[in-house]
Design a protein that fits this description.
Layout lengths: L1 H26 L6 H4 L6 H10 L6 H13 L13 H36 L4 H15 L2 H15 L12 E3 L2 E3 L4 H33 L3 H8 L4 H12 L1 H17 L2 H6 L5 H10 L3 H29 L1 H8 L1
Antiparallel strand pairs: 1-2
Helix pairs in contact: 1-14, 5-6, 5-8, 5-14, 6-8, 7-8, 8-11, 11-14, 13-14, 14-15
Amino acid sequence: MLGYFIQRLAQAVVVVFAMSIIVFVGVYAIGNPIDVLIDPGATQEIRAKLIAQYGLDQPLWRQYLTFLGNVAQGDMGTSMVYNIPVVDLVFSRLPATLELVFVSVLIATGIGIPAGLYAGYRPDSYAAKAIMALSVLGFSVPTFWIGMLLIMTFAVNLGVLPSGGRGDVGSFLGLQTSLATLDGWSHVIMPAVNLSLFKMGLMIRLTRAGMVEAMRTDYVKFARAQGLTDREIVFSHVLRNISIPIVTVFGLELGSTLAFAVVTESVFTWPGVGKLIIDSILQLDRPVMVTYLVLVVILFVLINLTVDLVYARLDPRVRLKGGA
């Protein structure tokens, strides 16, 4: 297991380094932020001074090396718009995004897996067909449209939930979070549901497919012959055997939910990292864009590494193949 961990860790480091180059080159090729930040009536002297101040007059390879050197010291740069360290800016918005992702993943998992198990256990029932139809809607309907529909229904027509914002923040175990207040929950529930629908549909379909396949296997027939109840068979045998693809997809979707909550945060004006990156793109705030994308890459790599380790724990054959 240790050899497998070292191998996967080395691969993760290579991936992060390669992606940092791609991110840096891609972001620094989309335009000059000075054109957005500076007054159009400014003189060429002022313009050249600002370009030199931010190091934009240096060759791209030198800018990248400077970036790596700063990162090694824990410095991701200073926002050109907010004029504060990028790390402080991103982490000031991160708790709001983590709250949204936590609740959305909780909804998607808490509903998706049980619904998928039932749909696979009773595949010909009307309830199972209704569940699968709803999962198709979760895949097909655009997120922004569902968000606007939720706002129109629950905020405008019924007036039972706020249309946007984070709400009141309270303290829980020393952490400042909106999940510690009723007003915070009233603000988070709609964007969390909106963000969870695609993941919920994916969980339902994946769990249902695994359930249908597992119920036809010999070990289930043998378990029934031993007199085990269907409940014992499903939760003690079937669920464990179909957990590997579920864990894999859960890890990947957790990363994508955190990285791509941009649309939901924009629709519900949720003050998270996604809203920050949209504003930064519009203003060409390069340090914020680079930091966000690099952190997303690191996040995906860490999640993939964790999923691989869990996968290897659930299925020892993975470790044997990795060490071969």
